[in-house]
Specification:
This protein has 404 residues and is of the alpha+beta class. It has 14 helices and ten strands. Strand 1 and strand 2 form a beta hairpin.
Length: 404
């Protein structure tokens, strides 16, 4: 192993600023050798065209437990890129079948029908914040909204949200948890979900799990059912909860951004939507990126990549690529079109992206409506970053200005 390889993920100057390595690698070394938390070597892609190519090419496999694949985490096994998650069919017709079955719950029509209830939840949480002079936006607002939504969708009690958060974090661990903690967390998570699945089989409700276990001719296997529920619970609350906190922090870090939204969001119908999309593109703290395993030799950016290599796609670095976005280093609230890669690309793009967009837009609109004077309670440079996990985020976003 080359001891001089840069360690990945790269450190950030602050929780909202990108690592300087992104720009340097995009311009000078688009296929870069890196060392992962496991000590294994991988290749990092940072250019927009390259990342989109790889995420759309079936020769780049999600089977990260293949012989010779780089271990992503500091532990021997586990996590969101381990074999349990790969129990969800990962390629070809089987994967398309899975997306067809699950995707019925994430249509634009269903998302529109959910909007009033999500807005009511957001306003209820704001009512509570308005009784204080200062609050942590993450725990008081950003976390409860998507947890409630995904629990309602799956038919599981949101009163168990703290357990979901812990189990999710163990599965997303890069360096935060020990192998013993990860194994125990995954076992508990799987047992909890299987008990829930069996209860739904006996007494079905109006939720996604009940629908999936109630299909006579096209039922998912037990491992697929558990993997689906795990994946949706993790993606449905971890990523969106973190993004709500980061989005609001980005907008408040430069007060002109928040004031621009305040001035125009009621008269410019698309402004909240384009602001959300730009926050997704501009996010400098999204986490690890998307790993892929190469099943046969292929060329990327003029470099031949050998079969058996592991490639890490940095969607966030790609979203700052000046060849794909004008003034890519600037946050433009009206940017359109905005073909960012925050939700991935190709056949494995995020199945819940319509739900995430709905939650982000409603969460932002409710804050603009109810707390127009919202501001950070301290310097943006001091915002604490979540460490040791696959998914980036902020531990806390202390805010005030509730009665300005």
């Amino acid at each position: 192993m080359d001891a001089d390889l840069p360690e990945y993920p790269f450190p950030q100057p602050t929780a909202l600023d990108p690592p300087p390595e992104w720009e340097r690698l995009r311009t000078g070394c688009p296929v870069a050798e890196i060392r992962l938390a496991s000590g294994d070597q991988a290749l990092l892609l940072t250019r927009y065209a390259d990342v989109r190519q790889v995420l759309s090419d079936p020769r780049f496999s999600r089977q990260l437990d293949a012989d010779g694949a780089a271990r992503v985490t500091a532990q021997e096994s586990g996590g969101v890129f381990g074999t349990e998650q790969n129990s969800i069919s990962s390629a070809g017709a089987a994967h398309q079948r899975w997306r067809r079955l699950v995707g019925r719950y994430f249509t634009a029509k269903r998302m529109a029908a959910m909007q009033p209830r999500i807005a009511a939840m957001a306003n209820q949480l704001i009512d509570d914040m308005l009784t204080r002079t200062e609050a942590d936006l993450v725990s008081a607002y950003a976390f409860p909204i998507p947890v409630w939504v995904i629990c309602d969708l799956l038919g599981v009690p949101d009163s168990d949200r703290d357990r979901f958060a812990y189990w999710s974090d163990t599965m997303l661990s890069l360096t935060r948890y020990t192998q013993k903690e990860i194994d125990e967390g995954q076992l508990e998570f799987g047992e909890y979900l299987w008990s829930h699945i069996e209860a739904k089989r006996a007494n079905p409700g109006e939720d996604l799990i009940s629908d999936l276990v109630g299909m006579d001719d096209d039922e998912l296997t037990p491992l697929e059912l558990i993997g689906t529920a795990q994946g949706l619970l993790i993606a449905g609350h971890e990523t969106t909860a973190n993004m709500i906190g980061k989005m609001v922090a980005m907008l408040l870090a430069d007060r002109s951004r928040w004031e621009r939204l305040r001035a125009g969001y009621r008269t410019e119908p698309d402004l909240v939507r384009t602001a959300v999309e730009e926050a997704l593109r501009f996010d400098a703290n999204p986490g690890f990126g998307m790993p892929r395993y190469i099943t046969e030799e292929i060329e990327v950016s003029g470099v031949k990549l050998a079969a058996g290599s592991t490639v890490i796609n940095s969607m966030a670095a790609a979203n700052r690529d000046e060849t794909a976005f004008d003034a890519a280093a600037e946050l433009d609230l009206t940017r359109s079109p905005n073909p960012h890669l925050a939700f991935g690309a190709g056949p494995h793009s995020c199945i819940g992206q319509a739900l995430a967009r709905t939650e982000l837009q409603i969460a932002l609109t409710a804050l603009l409506d109810r707390i127009p004077g919202l501001r950070l309670a301290g310097p943006a440079a001091d915002l604490p970053r979540r460490e040791g996990l696959m998914i980036g985020g902020l531990e806390r976003v202390m805010v005030t200005g509730f009665h300005d």
